[in-house]
Amino acid sequence: MFGFTLKAQRPPDPEPVTDGVVQRFEHLYEIDPDRMQIFPQQELPVWDTERIVAARWDHLAWIHDHFADSVIDGDDMWAELQNDDRPGLTRT
Asked: Which of 38, 44, 46, 70 would you label with 83, given CA atoms 20 to 30 Å apart?
């Protein structure tokens, strides 16, 4: 029989990142639950959150394998944009 207690699988307290964004796990950002008044955030055990994140990575890998000629690194793309002097491009 499989079983666990929700208390043992309770996620860590949210750490504020910016106004309206919190982080409970590394590289996993959420809307601040205090802002979710109409549709409150569900209580998910840690194992379920980890399962969902793993499935997203698996899906992204599948998409890359089937549809992408190459995968672009975000840092390389940002550096290329910073060096682009074409009119109409704005830098922040």
From this structure: 70
**How far is Cα 28 from Cα 53, in angstroms, rounded to an integer?**
8
Domain ranges of the chain: 15-82
Identify the DSSP state of 69: S
Instruction: State the Cα angle at 83 between 78 and 89, rounded to 5°.
Output: 80
Which runs of consecutive H residues, i.e. helices, occur in the chain?
Answer: 46-67, 74-82
> What's the pLDDT tens digit per position in 21-42?
999 998 899 999 889 889 888 8
Tokens of 10: 């309770």
Q: Is the distance from CB of 58 to CB of 49 less than 8 angstroms?
A: no
The structure tokens listed for 51 are: 């399962």
Q: Given a cut of 90, is residue 80 above it in pLDDT?
A: no
Distances (CA, A) of 1 to 4, 76: 10, 49
Question: In DSSP terms, which residues pair with 23 in a beta bridge?
Answer: 15, 29
